[in-house]
Specification:
It is built from six helices and 19 strands. The protein is of the alpha/beta class. Bound molecules: NADP nicotinamide-adenine-dinucleotide phosphate.
Length: 303
Protein backbone atom coordinates (compact mmCIF):
# COMPACT_ATOMS: atom_id res chain seq x y z
CA UNK A 1 0.00 0.00 0.00
CA UNK A 2 1.44 3.32 -1.09
CA UNK A 3 0.34 6.73 0.13
CA UNK A 4 0.05 7.93 -3.46
CA UNK A 5 0.02 6.44 -6.94
CA UNK A 6 0.65 8.81 -9.84
CA UNK A 7 -0.41 7.54 -13.27
CA UNK A 8 1.93 9.05 -15.87
CA UNK A 9 5.48 10.46 -15.76
CA UNK A 10 5.28 13.53 -17.97
CA UNK A 11 6.01 17.01 -16.57
CA UNK A 12 2.71 17.00 -14.59
CA UNK A 13 3.26 13.58 -13.02
CA UNK A 14 6.94 14.21 -12.27
CA UNK A 15 6.19 17.55 -10.62
CA UNK A 16 3.41 15.95 -8.56
CA UNK A 17 5.97 13.31 -7.50
CA UNK A 18 8.51 16.01 -6.59
CA UNK A 19 6.05 17.73 -4.27
CA UNK A 20 4.73 14.43 -2.86
CA UNK A 21 8.27 13.15 -2.28
CA UNK A 22 9.16 16.35 -0.42
CA UNK A 23 6.06 15.81 1.77
CA UNK A 24 7.52 12.35 2.49
CA UNK A 25 4.58 10.58 0.91
CA UNK A 26 5.39 7.01 -0.08
CA UNK A 27 4.86 7.53 -3.82
CA UNK A 28 4.74 5.23 -6.83
CA UNK A 29 4.62 6.49 -10.42
CA UNK A 30 3.30 4.11 -13.06
CA UNK A 31 4.32 4.99 -16.63
CA UNK A 32 3.70 2.85 -19.71
CA UNK A 33 6.59 4.28 -21.75
CA UNK A 34 9.64 6.19 -20.63
CA UNK A 35 9.47 9.35 -18.49
CA UNK A 36 8.53 12.46 -20.45
CA UNK A 37 5.32 11.83 -22.33
CA UNK A 38 4.47 13.89 -25.37
CA UNK A 39 7.00 16.67 -24.58
CA UNK A 40 9.62 14.25 -25.97
CA UNK A 41 7.95 14.51 -29.38
CA UNK A 42 9.53 17.98 -29.56
CA UNK A 43 13.27 18.40 -29.62
CA UNK A 44 13.48 21.49 -27.48
CA UNK A 45 11.25 23.90 -25.58
CA UNK A 46 11.71 27.67 -25.78
CA UNK A 47 9.09 28.97 -23.38
CA UNK A 48 10.01 27.19 -20.16
CA UNK A 49 11.19 29.94 -17.79
CA UNK A 50 14.86 30.09 -16.89
CA UNK A 51 16.23 28.76 -20.17
CA UNK A 52 16.89 31.65 -22.56
CA UNK A 53 17.39 30.18 -26.03
CA UNK A 54 15.50 27.03 -25.01
CA UNK A 55 16.32 23.71 -23.39
CA UNK A 56 16.38 20.22 -24.87
CA UNK A 57 13.27 18.32 -23.78
CA UNK A 58 15.28 15.18 -23.00
CA UNK A 59 17.57 17.19 -20.71
CA UNK A 60 14.63 18.85 -18.95
CA UNK A 61 12.90 15.50 -18.37
CA UNK A 62 16.04 13.71 -17.22
CA UNK A 63 16.58 16.50 -14.66
CA UNK A 64 12.97 16.19 -13.46
CA UNK A 65 13.29 12.40 -13.24
CA UNK A 66 16.60 12.61 -11.37
CA UNK A 67 15.07 15.05 -8.88
CA UNK A 68 12.20 12.69 -7.98
CA UNK A 69 14.38 9.58 -7.87
CA UNK A 70 16.64 11.38 -5.35
CA UNK A 71 13.58 11.64 -3.10
CA UNK A 72 13.04 7.88 -3.23
CA UNK A 73 10.01 7.95 -5.53
CA UNK A 74 9.61 4.61 -7.31
CA UNK A 75 8.91 4.69 -11.07
CA UNK A 76 7.42 1.48 -12.47
CA UNK A 77 7.02 0.66 -16.14
CA UNK A 78 3.51 -0.73 -16.59
CA UNK A 79 0.32 0.07 -18.50
CA UNK A 80 -2.70 1.07 -16.45
CA UNK A 81 -5.87 -0.65 -17.65
CA UNK A 82 -8.39 0.20 -14.94
CA UNK A 83 -8.86 2.26 -11.80
CA UNK A 84 -11.25 1.49 -8.96
CA UNK A 85 -11.77 5.02 -7.67
CA UNK A 86 -13.49 3.87 -4.44
CA UNK A 87 -10.78 1.39 -3.42
CA UNK A 88 -7.99 3.46 -5.03
CA UNK A 89 -6.85 0.27 -6.72
CA UNK A 90 -5.02 0.38 -10.02
CA UNK A 91 -5.13 -2.61 -12.37
CA UNK A 92 -2.21 -2.64 -14.78
CA UNK A 93 -0.96 -5.11 -17.36
CA UNK A 94 1.73 -6.28 -14.93
CA UNK A 95 -0.22 -6.39 -11.65
CA UNK A 96 -2.41 -4.46 -9.23
CA UNK A 97 -1.39 -1.59 -7.02
CA UNK A 98 -3.20 0.24 -4.22
CA UNK A 99 -2.81 3.60 -2.50
CA UNK A 100 -4.61 6.04 -0.21
CA UNK A 101 -4.97 8.55 -3.01
CA UNK A 102 -4.43 8.71 -6.78
CA UNK A 103 -3.20 11.39 -9.18
CA UNK A 104 -3.98 10.87 -12.86
CA UNK A 105 -1.37 12.53 -15.08
CA UNK A 106 -1.84 10.31 -18.10
CA UNK A 107 -1.38 13.03 -20.73
CA UNK A 108 -2.53 12.99 -24.32
CA UNK A 109 -1.64 11.33 -27.63
CA UNK A 110 -1.52 12.82 -31.14
CA UNK A 111 -4.85 13.07 -32.94
CA UNK A 112 -5.10 11.16 -36.23
CA UNK A 113 -6.15 12.78 -39.47
CA UNK A 114 -8.19 9.71 -40.51
CA UNK A 115 -7.47 9.89 -44.24
CA UNK A 116 -6.77 7.02 -46.66
CA UNK A 117 -3.14 5.88 -46.47
CA UNK A 118 -2.45 7.35 -42.99
CA UNK A 119 -2.72 4.10 -41.04
CA UNK A 120 -1.07 1.95 -43.72
CA UNK A 121 1.93 4.27 -44.11
CA UNK A 122 2.50 5.14 -40.44
CA UNK A 123 6.16 4.37 -39.78
CA UNK A 124 6.78 4.30 -43.54
CA UNK A 125 6.81 8.03 -44.11
CA UNK A 126 3.87 9.11 -41.94
CA UNK A 127 4.93 10.30 -38.49
CA UNK A 128 3.64 12.22 -35.47
CA UNK A 129 7.11 12.85 -34.00
CA UNK A 130 9.67 15.05 -35.70
CA UNK A 131 12.24 14.52 -32.98
CA UNK A 132 12.10 10.78 -33.60
CA UNK A 133 11.93 10.77 -37.38
CA UNK A 134 13.17 14.06 -38.91
CA UNK A 135 16.75 12.79 -39.46
CA UNK A 136 15.35 10.12 -41.85
CA UNK A 137 14.27 12.91 -44.20
CA UNK A 138 17.64 14.48 -44.91
CA UNK A 139 17.48 16.16 -48.33
CA UNK A 140 13.84 15.01 -48.83
CA UNK A 141 10.51 16.74 -49.31
CA UNK A 142 8.12 16.68 -46.37
CA UNK A 143 4.59 17.90 -45.74
CA UNK A 144 3.30 18.92 -42.32
CA UNK A 145 -0.37 19.25 -41.42
CA UNK A 146 -1.76 21.66 -38.79
CA UNK A 147 -1.71 25.30 -37.78
CA UNK A 148 -0.78 25.35 -34.07
CA UNK A 149 2.40 25.72 -32.04
CA UNK A 150 3.34 22.09 -32.56
CA UNK A 151 3.37 22.30 -36.36
CA UNK A 152 5.34 25.55 -36.21
CA UNK A 153 8.03 24.20 -33.90
CA UNK A 154 8.32 20.97 -35.81
CA UNK A 155 8.44 22.64 -39.24
CA UNK A 156 11.39 24.68 -37.97
CA UNK A 157 13.09 21.57 -36.62
CA UNK A 158 12.52 19.46 -39.74
CA UNK A 159 13.83 22.27 -41.98
CA UNK A 160 17.29 21.49 -40.56
CA UNK A 161 17.13 18.15 -42.41
CA UNK A 162 14.58 18.24 -45.25
CA UNK A 163 15.09 19.99 -48.59
CA UNK A 164 11.55 21.45 -48.50
CA UNK A 165 8.84 21.70 -45.86
CA UNK A 166 5.25 22.42 -46.93
CA UNK A 167 2.77 23.28 -44.18
CA UNK A 168 -0.83 22.42 -45.07
CA UNK A 169 -3.45 24.19 -42.96
CA UNK A 170 -7.22 24.15 -43.32
CA UNK A 171 -7.66 27.90 -42.73
CA UNK A 172 -5.98 31.11 -43.87
CA UNK A 173 -4.55 31.97 -40.42
CA UNK A 174 -2.30 29.80 -38.30
CA UNK A 175 -3.00 29.70 -34.59
CA UNK A 176 0.71 29.29 -33.67
CA UNK A 177 2.22 32.05 -31.51
CA UNK A 178 3.39 35.18 -33.35
CA UNK A 179 7.07 34.57 -32.56
CA UNK A 180 6.94 31.06 -34.07
CA UNK A 181 5.13 32.33 -37.17
CA UNK A 182 7.82 35.00 -37.64
CA UNK A 183 10.54 32.34 -37.43
CA UNK A 184 8.74 30.10 -39.94
CA UNK A 185 8.32 32.89 -42.46
CA UNK A 186 12.05 33.66 -42.23
CA UNK A 187 13.00 30.05 -43.03
CA UNK A 188 13.20 29.80 -46.82
CA UNK A 189 12.68 26.01 -46.93
CA UNK A 190 9.20 26.43 -45.36
CA UNK A 191 6.20 27.20 -47.57
CA UNK A 192 2.47 27.31 -46.77
CA UNK A 193 -0.53 25.71 -48.44
CA UNK A 194 -3.42 27.46 -46.74
CA UNK A 195 -7.19 27.00 -46.90
CA UNK A 196 -6.43 23.41 -47.83
CA UNK A 197 -7.02 19.94 -46.46
CA UNK A 198 -4.84 16.88 -46.81
CA UNK A 199 -7.34 14.27 -48.04
CA UNK A 200 -5.14 11.25 -48.71
CA UNK A 201 -1.61 9.87 -48.54
CA UNK A 202 -0.25 8.06 -51.59
CA UNK A 203 2.30 5.28 -51.79
CA UNK A 204 2.52 1.53 -51.30
CA UNK A 205 5.71 0.69 -49.41
CA UNK A 206 6.49 4.29 -48.52
CA UNK A 207 5.00 7.76 -48.90
CA UNK A 208 5.17 9.08 -52.46
CA UNK A 209 2.81 12.05 -52.24
CA UNK A 210 -0.28 13.60 -50.68
CA UNK A 211 -3.66 14.63 -52.01
CA UNK A 212 -4.52 18.20 -51.17
CA UNK A 213 -7.95 19.74 -51.59
CA UNK A 214 -8.31 23.50 -51.91
CA UNK A 215 -11.14 24.52 -49.57
CA UNK A 216 -12.06 27.55 -51.70
CA UNK A 217 -12.09 26.01 -55.19
CA UNK A 218 -12.70 22.34 -54.25
CA UNK A 219 -9.86 21.36 -56.60
CA UNK A 220 -7.71 18.39 -55.60
CA UNK A 221 -3.99 18.12 -56.46
CA UNK A 222 -1.26 15.58 -55.78
CA UNK A 223 1.87 16.95 -54.18
CA UNK A 224 4.85 14.56 -54.44
CA UNK A 225 6.71 14.15 -51.13
CA UNK A 226 8.64 11.61 -49.06
CA UNK A 227 7.21 12.22 -45.62
CA UNK A 228 4.10 13.48 -43.82
CA UNK A 229 4.11 14.80 -40.25
CA UNK A 230 0.72 15.30 -38.61
CA UNK A 231 0.22 17.90 -35.86
CA UNK A 232 -3.51 18.50 -35.48
CA UNK A 233 -3.80 18.48 -31.70
CA UNK A 234 -4.08 15.80 -29.08
CA UNK A 235 -6.59 13.40 -27.49
CA UNK A 236 -6.53 12.65 -23.75
CA UNK A 237 -5.27 9.24 -22.57
CA UNK A 238 -8.25 8.66 -20.30
CA UNK A 239 -10.09 5.60 -21.72
CA UNK A 240 -9.36 3.61 -18.53
CA UNK A 241 -11.36 6.19 -16.53
CA UNK A 242 -14.43 6.42 -18.75
CA UNK A 243 -17.62 6.60 -16.70
CA UNK A 244 -15.64 6.81 -13.44
CA UNK A 245 -14.89 10.54 -13.20
CA UNK A 246 -16.51 13.55 -14.85
CA UNK A 247 -15.15 14.26 -18.34
CA UNK A 248 -16.08 16.48 -21.24
CA UNK A 249 -17.30 15.00 -24.52
CA UNK A 250 -13.71 14.64 -25.81
CA UNK A 251 -12.61 12.69 -22.70
CA UNK A 252 -10.67 15.47 -20.92
CA UNK A 253 -11.09 15.08 -17.13
CA UNK A 254 -12.98 17.86 -15.35
CA UNK A 255 -11.35 19.08 -12.15
CA UNK A 256 -11.83 21.96 -9.73
CA UNK A 257 -9.07 24.42 -8.77
CA UNK A 258 -7.55 21.89 -6.38
CA UNK A 259 -7.28 19.34 -9.27
CA UNK A 260 -9.97 17.22 -7.58
CA UNK A 261 -12.04 15.07 -9.94
CA UNK A 262 -15.62 13.99 -9.26
CA UNK A 263 -14.26 10.88 -7.44
CA UNK A 264 -13.16 11.54 -3.86
CA UNK A 265 -9.40 11.25 -3.39
CA UNK A 266 -8.71 11.03 -7.13
CA UNK A 267 -6.95 14.06 -8.62
CA UNK A 268 -5.96 14.86 -12.21
CA UNK A 269 -3.32 17.16 -13.67
CA UNK A 270 -1.61 18.10 -16.94
CA UNK A 271 -2.78 17.47 -20.49
CA UNK A 272 -5.40 14.84 -19.56
CA UNK A 273 -7.57 17.47 -17.84
CA UNK A 274 -9.83 20.07 -19.36
CA UNK A 275 -8.29 23.55 -19.25
CA UNK A 276 -7.62 26.57 -21.43
CA UNK A 277 -3.86 26.30 -22.01
CA UNK A 278 -1.78 23.14 -22.62
CA UNK A 279 1.84 24.01 -21.85
CA UNK A 280 4.65 22.36 -19.90
CA UNK A 281 4.72 25.23 -17.45
CA UNK A 282 1.10 24.84 -16.36
CA UNK A 283 1.31 21.03 -16.49
CA UNK A 284 3.98 21.42 -13.79
CA UNK A 285 1.78 23.91 -11.91
CA UNK A 286 -1.12 21.44 -12.04
CA UNK A 287 1.14 18.69 -10.71
CA UNK A 288 2.20 20.79 -7.71
CA UNK A 289 -1.42 21.61 -6.84
CA UNK A 290 -2.53 17.98 -7.28
CA UNK A 291 0.22 16.74 -4.94
CA UNK A 292 -0.67 19.33 -2.31
CA UNK A 293 -4.33 18.31 -2.52
CA UNK A 294 -3.46 14.60 -2.38
CA UNK A 295 -1.31 15.23 0.71
CA UNK A 296 -4.12 17.13 2.43
CA UNK A 297 -6.56 14.36 1.51
CA UNK A 298 -4.41 11.68 3.16
CA UNK A 299 -3.86 13.91 6.21
CA UNK A 300 -7.63 14.45 6.49
CA UNK A 301 -7.16 18.16 5.99
CA UNK A 302 -9.52 20.17 3.84
CA UNK A 303 -8.25 20.70 0.29
P1 LIG B 1 -3.57 22.97 -31.52
O1 LIG B 1 -2.99 24.21 -30.99
O2 LIG B 1 -4.85 22.45 -30.96
O3 LIG B 1 -3.67 23.15 -33.09
C1 LIG B 1 -4.16 22.11 -33.87
C2 LIG B 1 -4.16 22.59 -35.30
O4 LIG B 1 -4.59 21.52 -36.12
C3 LIG B 1 -5.10 23.76 -35.51
O5 LIG B 1 -4.49 24.70 -36.34
C4 LIG B 1 -6.32 23.12 -36.18
O6 LIG B 1 -6.93 23.94 -37.13
C5 LIG B 1 -5.70 21.94 -36.89
N1 LIG B 1 -6.62 20.82 -36.97
C6 LIG B 1 -7.34 20.24 -35.98
N2 LIG B 1 -8.05 19.20 -36.45
C7 LIG B 1 -7.79 19.13 -37.77
C8 LIG B 1 -8.21 18.27 -38.81
N3 LIG B 1 -9.06 17.27 -38.59
N4 LIG B 1 -7.75 18.50 -40.05
C9 LIG B 1 -6.88 19.50 -40.30
N5 LIG B 1 -6.42 20.35 -39.35
C10 LIG B 1 -6.87 20.16 -38.11
O7 LIG B 1 -2.58 21.71 -31.39
P2 LIG B 1 -1.00 21.60 -31.37
O8 LIG B 1 -0.32 22.61 -32.18
O9 LIG B 1 -0.76 20.16 -31.64
O10 LIG B 1 -0.68 21.86 -29.86
C11 LIG B 1 -1.41 21.20 -28.82
C12 LIG B 1 -1.27 21.99 -27.55
O11 LIG B 1 0.08 21.96 -27.13
C13 LIG B 1 -1.65 23.45 -27.75
O12 LIG B 1 -2.29 23.88 -26.61
C14 LIG B 1 -0.33 24.12 -27.95
O13 LIG B 1 -0.34 25.47 -27.58
C15 LIG B 1 0.56 23.28 -27.04
N6 LIG B 1 1.94 23.36 -27.54
C16 LIG B 1 2.68 24.38 -27.10
C17 LIG B 1 3.96 24.55 -27.55
C18 LIG B 1 4.75 25.71 -27.08
O14 LIG B 1 4.16 26.66 -26.60
N7 LIG B 1 6.04 25.68 -27.15
C19 LIG B 1 4.51 23.65 -28.46
C20 LIG B 1 3.72 22.62 -28.92
C21 LIG B 1 2.41 22.49 -28.46
P3 LIG B 1 -7.76 25.27 -36.74
O15 LIG B 1 -6.72 26.29 -36.39
O16 LIG B 1 -8.52 25.55 -37.95
O17 LIG B 1 -8.62 24.85 -35.58
Amino acid sequence: MHDLIIIGAGPAGLTAALYAGRSRMNTLIIEKMSCGGRILMSESIENYPGFPGGVSTSELISRMEGQVRELGVEIKSDEVLDLDCGKKAVTAAGGTYAAKTIIVASGARPRKLDVPGEKELTGRGVSYCATCDAPFFKGKKVVLVGGGNAVAEEALYISRFASSVSVVHRRQELRASAILQEKMRKEEKISFILNSRLTGIEGEKSVKGVKIKDALTGKENILPCDGVFIYIGYEPETAFLKGKVGMDEAGFIITDDSMATSAEGVFACGDCRKKSLYQVINACGDGAVAADSAYKFTANRSV
